[in-house]
Amino acid sequence: MVVGVDGSESATEAVRWAAGEAVRRETSLRLVHAYFSTGDDYPNLEVTAAEVREALRETAVKRLRLAKLAAWAVAPSLEIETEVREGDPRPVLIDESKHALVLAVGTRGLDGVGRLVLGSSALAVAVHGRCPLVVVRGARSRSGPVVVGVDSWQASAFAVRFAFEEAARLGTSVTVLRTWSDLNLADSVTVQDAERQALETKVATVADWFPGVPFDCLVVRGRPAKVLKEYGERAVLIVVGTRGRNAFTGLLFGSVSQDLTGRAPCPVAVVRSDVVLLGAAGTAESLLLEGDGA
Protein backbone atom coordinates (compact mmCIF):
# COMPACT_ATOMS: atom_id res chain seq x y z
CA MET A 1 0.00 0.00 0.00
CA VAL A 2 1.33 3.41 -0.99
CA VAL A 3 -0.02 6.82 0.05
CA GLY A 4 0.88 10.19 -1.46
CA VAL A 5 1.39 12.57 1.47
CA ASP A 6 1.34 16.35 1.14
CA GLY A 7 0.61 17.56 4.66
CA SER A 8 -3.09 18.26 4.10
CA GLU A 9 -5.83 16.86 6.32
CA SER A 10 -7.23 15.11 3.26
CA ALA A 11 -3.94 13.27 2.77
CA THR A 12 -3.96 12.32 6.45
CA GLU A 13 -7.40 10.77 5.96
CA ALA A 14 -5.95 8.79 3.06
CA VAL A 15 -3.16 7.59 5.37
CA ARG A 16 -5.69 6.42 7.97
CA TRP A 17 -7.73 4.63 5.30
CA ALA A 18 -4.62 2.95 3.88
CA ALA A 19 -3.44 1.86 7.33
CA GLY A 20 -6.65 -0.08 7.88
CA GLU A 21 -6.48 -1.47 4.37
CA ALA A 22 -2.87 -2.59 4.86
CA VAL A 23 -3.86 -4.52 7.98
CA ARG A 24 -6.68 -6.25 6.11
CA ARG A 25 -4.34 -7.11 3.25
CA GLU A 26 -1.59 -8.21 5.67
CA THR A 27 0.95 -5.98 3.98
CA SER A 28 3.10 -2.98 4.84
CA LEU A 29 2.44 0.73 4.27
CA ARG A 30 4.64 3.10 2.29
CA LEU A 31 4.24 6.87 2.72
CA VAL A 32 5.73 9.09 0.01
CA HIS A 33 6.13 12.86 -0.16
CA ALA A 34 7.28 14.45 -3.43
CA TYR A 35 8.51 18.03 -3.58
CA PHE A 36 9.58 20.10 -6.53
CA SER A 37 12.30 22.75 -6.52
CA THR A 38 13.00 25.01 -9.50
CA GLY A 39 16.72 25.07 -8.70
CA ASP A 40 16.77 28.87 -8.86
CA ASP A 41 18.45 31.22 -6.40
CA TYR A 42 16.47 34.10 -4.92
CA PRO A 43 19.01 36.95 -4.60
CA ASN A 44 16.38 39.49 -3.57
CA LEU A 45 15.54 37.30 -0.60
CA GLU A 46 19.14 36.28 -0.05
CA VAL A 47 18.17 32.63 -0.37
CA THR A 48 20.02 30.10 -2.49
CA ALA A 49 18.53 27.19 -4.41
CA ALA A 50 20.27 24.78 -2.04
CA GLU A 51 18.64 26.44 0.97
CA VAL A 52 15.23 26.29 -0.66
CA ARG A 53 15.71 22.62 -1.47
CA GLU A 54 16.79 21.85 2.08
CA ALA A 55 13.80 23.71 3.54
CA LEU A 56 11.43 21.77 1.30
CA ARG A 57 13.04 18.51 2.32
CA GLU A 58 12.79 19.35 6.03
CA THR A 59 9.09 20.15 5.57
CA ALA A 60 8.60 16.85 3.75
CA VAL A 61 10.29 14.89 6.55
CA LYS A 62 8.08 16.60 9.13
CA ARG A 63 4.91 15.84 7.17
CA LEU A 64 5.87 12.20 6.79
CA ARG A 65 6.59 11.92 10.49
CA LEU A 66 3.09 13.20 11.31
CA ALA A 67 1.54 10.91 8.71
CA LYS A 68 3.34 7.94 10.21
CA LEU A 69 1.93 8.76 13.64
CA ALA A 70 -1.56 9.00 12.14
CA ALA A 71 -1.15 5.54 10.60
CA TRP A 72 0.11 4.04 13.85
CA ALA A 73 -2.90 5.50 15.66
CA VAL A 74 -5.01 3.22 13.45
CA ALA A 75 -2.66 0.22 13.39
CA PRO A 76 0.05 0.40 16.10
CA SER A 77 1.95 -2.67 14.89
CA LEU A 78 1.87 -1.78 11.18
CA GLU A 79 5.19 -1.83 9.34
CA ILE A 80 5.61 1.64 7.78
CA GLU A 81 8.21 2.91 5.34
CA THR A 82 8.59 6.61 4.48
CA GLU A 83 10.44 8.28 1.65
CA VAL A 84 11.02 11.84 0.49
CA ARG A 85 11.40 12.13 -3.28
CA GLU A 86 12.40 15.23 -5.19
CA GLY A 87 10.43 15.84 -8.37
CA ASP A 88 7.00 16.49 -9.82
CA PRO A 89 4.45 14.50 -7.77
CA ARG A 90 2.80 13.14 -10.93
CA PRO A 91 5.67 11.05 -12.34
CA VAL A 92 6.76 10.20 -8.81
CA LEU A 93 3.38 8.66 -7.96
CA ILE A 94 3.13 6.92 -11.32
CA ASP A 95 6.52 5.34 -10.61
CA GLU A 96 5.36 4.32 -7.12
CA SER A 97 2.28 2.67 -8.62
CA LYS A 98 4.44 0.16 -10.49
CA HIS A 99 5.14 -1.73 -7.27
CA ALA A 100 2.01 -1.00 -5.23
CA LEU A 101 -1.08 -3.07 -4.51
CA VAL A 102 -3.07 0.16 -4.23
CA LEU A 103 -2.10 3.83 -4.30
CA ALA A 104 -4.17 6.19 -2.15
CA VAL A 105 -4.44 9.99 -2.19
CA GLY A 106 -6.67 12.57 -0.57
CA THR A 107 -9.20 14.75 -2.36
CA ARG A 108 -7.54 18.08 -1.72
CA GLY A 109 -3.96 19.27 -1.72
CA LEU A 110 -2.20 22.21 -0.12
CA ASP A 111 -1.52 25.39 -2.00
CA GLY A 112 2.08 26.08 -2.89
CA VAL A 113 5.13 24.05 -3.87
CA GLY A 114 4.88 20.29 -3.50
CA ARG A 115 1.07 20.19 -3.47
CA LEU A 116 -0.82 17.05 -4.40
CA VAL A 117 -3.70 18.21 -6.56
CA LEU A 118 -6.56 15.92 -7.51
CA GLY A 119 -6.84 17.49 -10.93
CA SER A 120 -3.24 16.68 -11.83
CA SER A 121 -1.48 14.13 -9.65
CA ALA A 122 -4.40 11.82 -8.90
CA LEU A 123 -5.75 11.93 -12.44
CA ALA A 124 -2.27 11.30 -13.81
CA VAL A 125 -2.15 8.10 -11.75
CA ALA A 126 -5.67 7.18 -12.91
CA VAL A 127 -4.55 7.49 -16.53
CA HIS A 128 -0.98 6.21 -16.39
CA GLY A 129 -0.66 4.34 -13.08
CA ARG A 130 -0.04 0.62 -12.85
CA CYS A 131 -2.26 -0.18 -9.86
CA PRO A 132 -5.73 0.76 -8.59
CA LEU A 133 -6.03 4.33 -7.29
CA VAL A 134 -8.20 5.20 -4.29
CA VAL A 135 -9.25 8.81 -3.75
CA VAL A 136 -10.18 8.92 -0.07
CA ARG A 137 -13.15 10.98 0.95
CA GLY A 138 -15.62 10.42 3.78
CA ALA A 139 -15.57 7.88 6.57
CA ARG A 140 -14.55 4.25 6.07
CA SER A 141 -16.14 3.24 9.38
CA ARG A 142 -19.64 3.26 7.87
CA SER A 143 -21.40 0.03 7.00
CA GLY A 144 -22.80 -0.80 3.60
CA PRO A 145 -21.94 -2.54 0.34
CA VAL A 146 -19.12 -1.91 -2.10
CA VAL A 147 -20.77 -0.19 -5.08
CA VAL A 148 -19.23 -0.64 -8.54
CA GLY A 149 -20.25 1.21 -11.69
CA VAL A 150 -20.24 -0.87 -14.87
CA ASP A 151 -20.12 0.16 -18.51
CA SER A 152 -18.79 -2.30 -21.10
CA TRP A 153 -17.42 -5.52 -19.63
CA GLN A 154 -14.03 -4.92 -21.21
CA ALA A 155 -13.85 -1.60 -19.35
CA SER A 156 -15.27 -2.84 -16.07
CA ALA A 157 -14.19 -6.45 -15.45
CA PHE A 158 -11.25 -5.57 -13.23
CA ALA A 159 -13.23 -2.90 -11.40
CA VAL A 160 -15.81 -5.57 -10.56
CA ARG A 161 -13.03 -7.92 -9.47
CA PHE A 162 -11.56 -5.26 -7.21
CA ALA A 163 -15.00 -4.58 -5.72
CA PHE A 164 -15.45 -8.25 -4.81
CA GLU A 165 -11.96 -8.43 -3.26
CA GLU A 166 -12.69 -5.40 -1.10
CA ALA A 167 -16.10 -6.74 -0.09
CA ALA A 168 -14.52 -10.07 0.91
CA ARG A 169 -12.01 -8.29 3.16
CA LEU A 170 -14.66 -6.07 4.71
CA GLY A 171 -17.25 -8.82 5.14
CA THR A 172 -19.88 -7.00 3.11
CA SER A 173 -21.77 -7.31 -0.19
CA VAL A 174 -21.34 -5.88 -3.70
CA THR A 175 -23.87 -3.78 -5.58
CA VAL A 176 -23.18 -3.63 -9.32
CA LEU A 177 -24.72 -0.60 -11.06
CA ARG A 178 -25.30 0.03 -14.74
CA THR A 179 -27.03 3.24 -15.87
CA TRP A 180 -29.04 4.06 -18.94
CA SER A 181 -30.76 7.24 -20.13
CA ASP A 182 -32.79 6.34 -23.24
CA LEU A 183 -36.22 7.86 -22.62
CA ASN A 184 -37.76 6.70 -25.91
CA LEU A 185 -37.84 2.93 -25.36
CA ALA A 186 -41.37 1.59 -25.83
CA ASP A 187 -40.97 -1.27 -23.37
CA SER A 188 -38.41 0.04 -20.91
CA VAL A 189 -39.27 -2.49 -18.20
CA THR A 190 -38.57 -5.44 -20.50
CA VAL A 191 -35.35 -3.92 -21.79
CA GLN A 192 -34.21 -3.03 -18.30
CA ASP A 193 -34.86 -6.56 -17.07
CA ALA A 194 -32.95 -8.04 -20.02
CA GLU A 195 -30.00 -5.73 -19.32
CA ARG A 196 -30.00 -6.75 -15.67
CA GLN A 197 -30.01 -10.46 -16.48
CA ALA A 198 -27.15 -10.01 -18.96
CA LEU A 199 -25.21 -8.07 -16.32
CA GLU A 200 -25.81 -10.79 -13.71
CA THR A 201 -24.41 -13.41 -16.11
CA LYS A 202 -21.20 -11.43 -16.53
CA VAL A 203 -20.79 -10.61 -12.84
CA ALA A 204 -21.36 -14.25 -11.90
CA THR A 205 -18.05 -15.14 -13.61
CA VAL A 206 -16.30 -13.01 -11.00
CA ALA A 207 -18.59 -13.87 -8.09
CA ASP A 208 -17.72 -17.57 -8.51
CA TRP A 209 -14.29 -16.74 -7.08
CA PHE A 210 -15.94 -15.26 -3.97
CA PRO A 211 -18.72 -17.64 -2.86
CA GLY A 212 -19.05 -15.88 0.50
CA VAL A 213 -19.77 -12.45 -1.00
CA PRO A 214 -23.42 -11.73 -1.82
CA PHE A 215 -24.14 -9.40 -4.73
CA ASP A 216 -26.97 -7.77 -6.61
CA CYS A 217 -27.11 -6.11 -10.02
CA LEU A 218 -29.15 -2.98 -10.71
CA VAL A 219 -29.88 -1.24 -14.00
CA VAL A 220 -30.87 2.33 -13.13
CA ARG A 221 -32.01 5.20 -15.31
CA GLY A 222 -29.98 8.35 -14.70
CA ARG A 223 -26.63 10.05 -15.07
CA PRO A 224 -23.67 7.88 -13.92
CA ALA A 225 -22.08 10.29 -11.42
CA LYS A 226 -25.44 11.22 -9.89
CA VAL A 227 -26.53 7.58 -9.54
CA LEU A 228 -23.20 6.55 -8.04
CA LYS A 229 -23.28 9.39 -5.52
CA GLU A 230 -26.82 8.48 -4.48
CA TYR A 231 -25.94 4.83 -3.92
CA GLY A 232 -22.63 5.90 -2.38
CA GLU A 233 -24.55 7.46 0.51
CA ARG A 234 -25.12 3.90 1.73
CA ALA A 235 -21.80 2.45 0.57
CA VAL A 236 -18.42 1.77 2.13
CA LEU A 237 -16.61 2.24 -1.20
CA ILE A 238 -17.38 3.24 -4.80
CA VAL A 239 -15.41 1.50 -7.56
CA VAL A 240 -15.22 2.59 -11.20
CA GLY A 241 -13.29 1.53 -14.28
CA THR A 242 -11.58 4.00 -16.60
CA ARG A 243 -12.07 2.78 -20.18
CA GLY A 244 -15.75 2.50 -21.01
CA ARG A 245 -17.44 3.51 -24.25
CA ASN A 246 -20.94 4.31 -23.04
CA ALA A 247 -22.48 5.46 -19.74
CA PHE A 248 -19.30 5.61 -17.69
CA THR A 249 -17.03 6.89 -20.46
CA GLY A 250 -14.75 9.60 -19.15
CA LEU A 251 -16.04 9.24 -15.61
CA LEU A 252 -12.66 10.20 -14.23
CA PHE A 253 -12.03 13.01 -16.64
CA GLY A 254 -13.56 16.49 -16.78
CA SER A 255 -16.50 17.77 -14.78
CA VAL A 256 -18.14 14.39 -14.07
CA SER A 257 -14.97 12.95 -12.57
CA GLN A 258 -14.30 16.01 -10.45
CA ASP A 259 -17.91 15.92 -9.27
CA LEU A 260 -17.71 12.27 -8.21
CA THR A 261 -14.29 12.23 -6.56
CA GLY A 262 -14.73 15.67 -5.03
CA ARG A 263 -18.22 15.09 -3.64
CA ALA A 264 -18.59 11.35 -3.14
CA PRO A 265 -19.63 10.45 0.42
CA CYS A 266 -17.08 7.62 0.63
CA PRO A 267 -13.72 6.64 -0.91
CA VAL A 268 -13.65 6.14 -4.69
CA ALA A 269 -11.46 3.44 -6.25
CA VAL A 270 -10.33 3.82 -9.86
CA VAL A 271 -9.32 0.59 -11.60
CA ARG A 272 -7.85 0.71 -15.09
CA SER A 273 -9.10 -1.92 -17.52
CA ASP A 274 -5.57 -2.82 -18.65
CA VAL A 275 -3.99 -3.27 -15.23
CA VAL A 276 -3.85 -6.79 -13.78
CA LEU A 277 -4.59 -6.72 -10.05
CA LEU A 278 -1.68 -7.99 -7.98
CA GLY A 279 -2.60 -11.08 -6.00
CA ALA A 280 -5.85 -11.65 -7.88
CA ALA A 281 -6.89 -15.25 -8.34
CA GLY A 282 -7.58 -16.36 -11.88
CA THR A 283 -6.30 -14.86 -15.10
CA ALA A 284 -7.11 -11.77 -17.11
CA GLU A 285 -8.66 -14.00 -19.73
CA SER A 286 -11.08 -15.46 -17.21
CA LEU A 287 -12.52 -11.99 -16.59
CA LEU A 288 -12.47 -10.53 -20.06
CA LEU A 289 -15.06 -12.79 -21.60
CA GLU A 290 -15.87 -12.63 -25.29
CA GLY A 291 -18.21 -9.73 -25.96
CA ASP A 292 -19.11 -6.80 -23.73
CA GLY A 293 -22.87 -6.69 -23.82
CA ALA A 294 -23.06 -6.00 -20.09
UniProtKB/TrEMBL annotation:
<feature type="domain" description="UspA">
    <location>
        <begin position="2"/>
        <end position="137"/>
    </location>
</feature>
<comment type="similarity">
    <text>Belongs to the universal stress protein A family.</text>
</comment>
<protein>
    <submittedName>
        <fullName>Universal stress protein UspA</fullName>
    </submittedName>
</protein>
<dbReference type="InterPro" id="IPR014729">
    <property type="entry name" value="Rossmann-like_a/b/a_fold"/>
</dbReference>
<dbReference type="Pfam" id="PF00582">
    <property type="entry name" value="Usp"/>
</dbReference>
<dbReference type="InterPro" id="IPR006016">
    <property type="entry name" value="UspA"/>
</dbReference>
<feature type="domain" description="UspA">
    <location>
        <begin position="145"/>
        <end position="272"/>
    </location>
</feature>
<dbReference type="InterPro" id="IPR006015">
    <property type="entry name" value="Universal_stress_UspA"/>
</dbReference>
